């Protein structure tokens, strides 16, 4: 469908020269020129050139007008010419490049990493979906949960910043699924965030994240367990998720060791203002002091869930794999219908831009000829 669009062949060297001369004169480059440049990429080397001009465009007066189809085309071109690392780089540095994809584009990039078994990079895409709060499509939820479950199954060694990103992704994506998978994801997500809160304080949890700023993420994890224990349906929590939470709780230092002295590996470096915001205050210390109480309550709730038969023996990875196998194909059908309509709308808008560009050029040429005629008449006089 994408390849069948009407082509607009262009010479990249000419387009690059046009943009360079326009920028040198401190004039804005049109979004249509940027779109043509991305559409006409034909090699891996040209991907690097396009990255440069995406950056230049983002830092120009026209930065707000980078078209959705240009962003989509950029990701597609990166996938086509073996530059997924470049796609991920521009996505993670979206403020500098203006790459804010839609749901379908996110899915394409995530799916590409999943098919190659690169679950860490797939989770990096999930993190960006989480930051944009773009878990609306069922297909995005399924792919995200599959990527997260597959990555966690490898038991990676995570820095604090990675635990925060995974925790937020699990929590926000899990809230879209009111079932065993969704509640297990919420449990683990709250536990990850609770660990970060215990070590670094609440500011380190919600800063730059679409998260609630109230203290007590470990308490919210236990609330998920209480909710499942009180539920009348067949909803459960996966056994390996409970084991993961148990390990997280036992990895945390007791309250007699100051959270500020804990390992800070993975913490993003920042200025004095960032350090000041991340300072653990008295309320944070009071929350950290509840750890023994949380551990005790976790053991009680785990026993209660076990006795009620509400512990799912199937691993979280197997659960999300089954979810993908059973539901992904059906979820993709409306996505493709919506995508077809979206591409048609993009093409119609592009034709309007081309027509407007043509009219503006004709008008500029007419004004130029009128000026030349006026100058010639003045010289004759």
Describe the structure.
This protein is mostly helical and 381 residues long. The chain has 18 helices and 2 strands. It has helices spanning 12-24, 31-39, 44-58, 68-80, 84-92, 94-97, 103-115, 119-131, 138-152, 160-174, 180-200, 203-206, 217-230, 239-251, 272-277, 282-288, 291-307, 316-380; strands at 237-238, 311-312. A two-stranded parallel sheet has the order 1-2. The longest helix has 65 residues, at 316-380. It is elongated and about 100 Å long. The N and C termini lie far apart (62 Å).
State the order of secondary-structure elements, H for helix, E for strand: HHHHHHHHHHHHHEHHHHEH
Spatial strand order of the main sheet: 1-2
How many E strands?
2
> What's the helix count?
18
Quick take:
This protein has 381 residues and is mainly α.
Highlighted features:
381 residues; mainly alpha; two-stranded parallel sheet; 1% strand
Which secondary structure elements does this structure contain, and how are they paired or packed?
Blueprint: H1 12-24, H2 31-39, H3 44-58, H4 68-80, H5 84-92, H6 94-97, H7 103-115, H8 119-131, H9 138-152, H10 160-174, H11 180-200, H12 203-206, H13 217-230, E1 237-238, H14 239-251, H15 272-277, H16 282-288, H17 291-307, E2 311-312, H18 316-380
Parallel strand pairs: 1-2
Helix pairs in contact: 2-3, 2-4, 4-5, 4-7, 7-8, 7-9, 8-9, 8-10, 9-10, 9-18, 10-11, 11-13, 11-14, 11-16, 13-17, 14-17
């Amino acid at each position: 469908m994408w390849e069948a669009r009407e082509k607009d062949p262009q010479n990249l060297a000419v387009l690059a020269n046009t943009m360079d001369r326009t920028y040198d004169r401190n004039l804005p480059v049109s979004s249509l020129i940027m779109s043509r440049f991305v559409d006409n990429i034909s090699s891996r080397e040209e991907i690097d050139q396009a990255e440069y001009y995406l950056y230049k465009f983002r830092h120009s007066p026209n930065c707000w007008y980078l078209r959705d189809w240009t962003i989509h085309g950029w990701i597609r071109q990166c996938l086509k010419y073996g530059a997924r690392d470049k796609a991920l780089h521009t996505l993670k540095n979206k403020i500098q490049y203006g790459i804010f994809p839609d749901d379908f584009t996110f899915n394409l990039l995530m799916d590409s990493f999943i098919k190659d078994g690169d679950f860490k990079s797939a989770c990096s895409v999930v993190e960006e979906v989480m930051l944009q709060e773009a878990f609306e499509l069922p297909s995005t939820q399924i792919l995200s949960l599959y990527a997260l479950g597959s990555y966690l199954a490898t038991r990676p060694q995570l820095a604090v910043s990675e635990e925060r990103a995974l925790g937020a992704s699990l929590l926000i994506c899990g809230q879209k699924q009111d079932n065993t998978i969704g509640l297990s994801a919420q449990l683990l997500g709250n536990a990850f965030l609770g660990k970060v809160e215990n070590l670094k304080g609440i500011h380190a949890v919600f800063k730059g994240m679409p998260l609630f700023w109230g203290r007590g993420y470990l308490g919210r994890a236990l609330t998920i367990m209480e909710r499942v224990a009180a539920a009348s349906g067949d909803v459960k929590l996966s056994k390996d998720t409970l084991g993961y939470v148990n390990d997280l709780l036992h990895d945390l230092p007791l309250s007699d060791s100051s959270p500020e002295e804990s390992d800070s590996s993975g913490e993003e470096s920042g200025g004095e203002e960032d350090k000041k915001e991340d300072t653990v205050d008295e309320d944070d210390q009071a929350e950290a002091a509840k750890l023994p109480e949380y551990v005790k309550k976790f053991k009680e709730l785990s026993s209660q869930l076990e006795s009620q038969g509400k512990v799912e023996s199937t691993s979280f990875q197997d659960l999300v794999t089954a979810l993908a196998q059973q539901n992904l194909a059906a979820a993709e059908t409306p996505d493709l219908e919506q995508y077809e309509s979206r591409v048609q709308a993009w093409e119609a808008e592009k034709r309007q831009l081309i027509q407007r560009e043509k009219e503006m050029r004709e008008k500029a040429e007419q004004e130029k000829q009128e000026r030349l005629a006026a100058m010639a008449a003045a010289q004759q006089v």
